[in-house]
Design brief:
Helix 4 runs parallel beside helix 7. The chain is α/β, with parallel strands linked by helices and about 750 residues long. The protein has 21 helices and 19 strands. The longest helix is centred in the first third of the chain and has 116 residues.
């Protein structure tokens, strides 16, 4: 056991030191008792001197002198020889008391024998004190009583009892004192042990706090690093989206040339001044077919990018799979006939409809059938569709070379080809199966393959069925004659059905309504073209919100602030999301087309403008595009007078000089781009009314940024709680670097 000493800087001491401490304390007690005994010894000497008149004077004086000498010698020996001084005091005092009683005639001195006996207990402990008491008792019992004092015969027993009583009381007095001392030292040692443990715990706690502080600092640094990495990832994603948009622009422009010229030559060879030879037309057909294939590959890359960015949505409708399968078979049948392969379909009769995207399901079927046709040399392909549990299982089985087990694991990964060598027999980017797999998963189904190398392959995919019970005609379908009214005796535990929220969209085109229909599948979208009608519809349908797609969000917001009949409790949101038709309206042009532009599409747009026999200016920085559009217009047989400008600056000069009847232009041109050309034209009163058709590879809905503003107005205003909640939600959505931004929202006041 370790002890601690107060007043010594909390230094630990061992049990031996604790014993020395106790001995020191007892020594102080004995020293005090010794001093008291010397004082009593001197007092006894004075009493003897005072009573010497009734005693033998010489003997009394000698005894008093002996008492004084005894005290002096004991005093001198107490510091050097404390044990000897103590025994001298006990024995000497006892002997002198006996001399006083038997030699000097002072019999009362025998009563003082209890003092040296008690002194022996105090100085040497209980055993020694008991021994001295026993010795004095034997002396009193066996000594010649009549020689000591004639009065001792009657008082001897009382004196012995006095001696033992004093010794007993002294022992009883010292025992509690010793016990209390031991208890005190024990409690003191225990408290010091607890103090040591608490100090150790405090030390450990301080160490833990330091470790936590260090860990917290590291966590803060990691959070900063994570925020930086998140921002870099967001920037990389935005850069990738912009890259995809730019690449699509750059690829679509030359594709427009290839597809446009090849179709132009194939459909209107007379525009080139003569009859084309058969081999040349066949080669042009190959060029056109491969250009279309390249265009589909670009669309695949864009689809994959949109899927990975979570921007791809399904246009869900009731789809009859039998019709979709038949349409896919018709599309791929020429491939199978050219290779003399059979193509069969086994569709279960009465197959229920599915709720899905007809176009995407058809793409999945076309991709699987095309792959099966390309890889199969003998035999053919069988398409099966049957109902299985709550799904429809569609299987495409071929008699081709099959797929090895080790290759099946990477079959649905993007940009993977089973034969990745440069001299592989079959082409492709390896995106078709991956995109088809993701389309099926977006429908809530799954896709897998079963195959053995050399024995053909079977691709399966499932589409979930949404069962709806057939409804009888007439109002009676809502009633059942067997129904019985039963009064409810307890609250209903049936969960409340979630009503689909209504969103009213106000726009002149249909771009925003199409986007909301695709991406907000849990809401019903109602599209109107007039603002007043939108507000009435919102009040009638109790819509969740009214969304206005306007060219200028600020101007529309200012207009809404003057409207007095805004729907009560329904927020009105304003944004600017241009589609191709909306982009035309936003730019103030007659039409907006995304390249590649088909010849029929362009001519139909000019027909709507009544341009037969009119002068048309074509502005594009691509020389091939100018040649293509020039050929398209001249081959139409409508007496167009076509002018061309290789950039925006020359187009502006020709506009002022030639005053054409219509302008066909690209938006991205050097010197002066299409936007600047439009702005300059609209500021000139003589040129303002010339209709413009935009021919651009820039798709308004395919850009990373769809709208730069979002404004909200509420008829009854916004409370503090609504304002803070709106700031919190927008902060989480629009601040990718701080996704956990949040505010402590105040409670909404009652009523």
């Amino acid at each position: 056991m370790r002890l601690w000493r107060l007043g010594s800087d909390n230094l630990p001491i061992e049990p031996s030191a604790w014993a020395a401490e106790m001995h020191g304390l007892l020594a102080q007690v004995r020293d005090s008792v010794f001093t008291l005994a010397l004082a009593l010894l001197g007092a006894t000497a004075l009493v003897v001197v005072a009573m010497s008149a009734t005693l033998d004077v010489a003997r009394a004086a000698l005894c008093a002198t002996l008492l004084l000498w005894l005290g002096a010698v004991a005093w001198l020996l107490r510091s050097r020889k404390p044990q000897i001084a103590g025994w001298l005091l006990v024995v000497g005092w006892s002997v002198i008391n006996l001399l006083l009683a038997g030699w000097a005639g002072l019999s009362a001195a025998l009563w003082l024998l209890a003092l040296p006996a008690g002194l022996a207990v105090m100085l040497f402990g209980a055993p020694v004190g008991l021994g001295v008491s026993a010795g004095l008792s034997l002396l009193l019992i066996f000594a010649p009583v009549d020689r000591l004092s004639p009065d001792l015969v009657s008082d001897r027993t009382l004196i012995i009892l006095e001696i033992w009583g004093v010794v007993g009381l002294t022992v009883l007095t010292l025992r509690p004192l010793q016990t209390v001392g031991e208890w005190a030292w024990s409690a003191y040692s225990h408290s010091q042990e607890l103090l040591r443990k608490s100090q150790d715990a405090q030390l450990q706690l301080n160490q833990v706090l330091e470790d936590l502080t260090s860990a917290n600092a590291q966590l803060v640094r990691l959070n900063h690093l994570t925020d930086g990495l998140r921002q870099e990832a967001e920037e990389s994603r935005r850069t990738k989206d912009q890259f995809v948009a730019n690449v699509s622009h750059e690829l679509r422009t030359p594709l427009n040339m290839i597809i446009g010229f090849s179709e132009m030559i194939l459909n209107a060879p007379q525009a080139y001044g003569g009859r084309m030879s058969g081999p040349l037309l066949a080669d042009l057909a190959v060029i056109s077919r491969n250009a279309q294939h390249l265009s589909s590959l670009i669309d695949d890359v864009l689809d994959l990018s949109q899927i990975e960015a979570g921007q791809m949505a399904l246009v869900r409708e009731r789809v009859a799979l039998a019709e979709v399968i038949e349409a896919a078979l018709v599309a791929v049948r020429p491939l199978f006939e050219s290779k003399e392969l059979f193509l069969r379909a086994e569709v279960e009769v009465g197959l229920p409809e599915v709720n899905g995207d007809r176009t995407r399901i058809r793409e999945v079927l076309l991709n699987l059938l095309s792959n099966a046709g390309r890889f199969t040399e003998h035999g053919g392909v069988t398409v099966e569709a049957r109902r299985r549990d709550g799904d429809i299982l569609i299987s495409i089985s071929d008699t081709g070379p099959g797929i090895a087990l080790e290759d099946q694991a990477r079959l649905f990964q993007p940009f993977q080809q089973l034969d990745s060598s440069l001299r592989r027999r079959y082409g492709g980017t390896g995106l078709g199966l991956n995109i088809s797999h993701r389309f099926v998963e977006m429908h809530g189904g799954r896709m897998w393959v079963e195959s053995v190398s050399g024995a053909g392959a079977t691709f399966h995919f499932t589409l979930p069925i949404e069962l709806t019970a057939p409804m009888a005609p007439g109002a009676g379908r809502w009633l059942n004659p067997a129904w019985e009214f039963v009064e409810r005796t307890h609250p209903s535990l049936t969960p409340v059905a979630q009503v689909q929220p209504e969103i009213v969209v106000c726009e002149t085109g249909g771009s925003l309504a199409n986007l909301l229909t695709r991406y907000m599948q849990d809401a019903r979208v109602t599209a109107v073209q007039d603002l007043d009608e939108a507000l009435r519809q919102a009040a009638t349908l109790q819509a969740q919100a009214v969304v206005v797609n306007a060219i200028s969000a600020a101007e529309m917001l200012a207009q809404l602030e003057t409207v007095e009949l805004l729907p009560e409790g329904i927020p009105v949101m304003v944004c600017s999301v241009p589609g191709a038709p909306d982009a035309a309206g936003n730019l103030g042009v007659a039409d907006y087309f995304v390249k590649p532009v088909a010849r029929e599409t362009l001519l139909a747009a000019l027909d709507r403008l009544g341009m037969d026999g009119k002068k048309i200016l074509v502005a594009d920085d691509d020389e091939d595009a100018l040649r293509l559009f020039h050929r398209m217009l001249l081959s139409a047989g409508r007496d167009y007078r076509v002018l061309t400008a290789p950039d925006g600056r020359q187009a502006w000069d020709m506009l002022q000089r030639e005053r054409p009847d219509a302008l066909l232009m690209d938006l991205m041109m050097p010197e002066m781009d299409g936007f600047e050309l439009l702005a300059a034209k609209n500021t000139n009163a003589a040129l303002r009314d010339i209709p413009v058709v935009v021919l651009s590879a820039r798709d308004p809905l395919g850009q990373p940024i769809v709208s730069k503003a979002l404004a909200v107005i509420h008829q009854s205003g916004l409370s503090l709680a609504q304002l803070l909640a709106g700031i919190t939600v927008l902060g989480k959505v629009l601040s990718p670097a701080h996704p956990n931004i949040g505010l402590r929202l105040p409670a909404e006041p009652p009523g």
